[in-house]
Design goal:
The protein is α+β, with helices and mostly antiparallel strands. The protein is built from 6 helices and 6 strands. α4 packs across α5. The longest helix is centred in the N-terminal third of the chain and has 20 residues, at about 5-25. The radius of gyration is 19 Å and the shape is globular.
Length: about 160
């Protein structure tokens, strides 16, 4: 049988390795802000969430304010209703059942908010959306992405997932 102090010496490095491995894959709730319809990722957590790699977001990152998100949200449904994609109108009608992740990033000196939306069928069965970027390559109407320019109050580059 191993003495207690040897077990502690073996267990501590293993525990530290597990913590270090997890640090790069999840974001603490203390480093993001939950709002009524989604989660605002803090600037320092964009890379940790995987959004920079998975969504192609570029630094410098910044943290959108709840007021900016409220303004964005007040304009999202009308925008989706105006877009020529028929699926966008369906999402607009169901928008209340979707959750969103918000990431602040910069491109060519302009600030953008990346909106990553997903339907109730996804967020109700999996809580990981509060810690990690949600990326699904199919799923149809259940998943959409769009970017928003807060200085111009304008959306662009709407992407709605296809069906597998």
């Amino acid at each position: 049988m191993m003495p207690n102090n040897v077990r502690l010496c073996v267990a501590a490095p293993v525990y530290m390795l597990i913590l270090l491995a997890l640090a790069g894959t999840t974001v603490s709730q203390e480093h993001s802000q939950l709002v009524d319809i989604g989660l605002i990722f803090f600037a320092e957590d964009v890379e940790r969430s995987g959004a920079d790699r998975v969504l192609g977001l570029t630094p410098p990152y910044w943290t959108p304010s709840p007021e900016q998100i409220a303004l964005l949200e007040s304009q999202l449904r009308p925008y989706l209703g105006r877009v020529t994609q028929p699926k966008a109108k369906v999402i607009a009608a169901r928008l209340g059942s979707y959750r969103r992740q918000y990431f602040g990033y910069s491109e060519n000196g302009k600030k953008w908010i990346f909106v990553n939306g997903f339907c109730e069928g996804h967020w109700k069965k999996e809580d990981a959306w509060r810690d990690r970027v949600v990326l699904v390559l199919d799923g149809g109407l259940c998943f959409f992405k769009v970017r928003y320019n807060p200085s111009r109050s304008q959306f662009e580059q709407l992407e709605i997932n296809g069906e597998a």
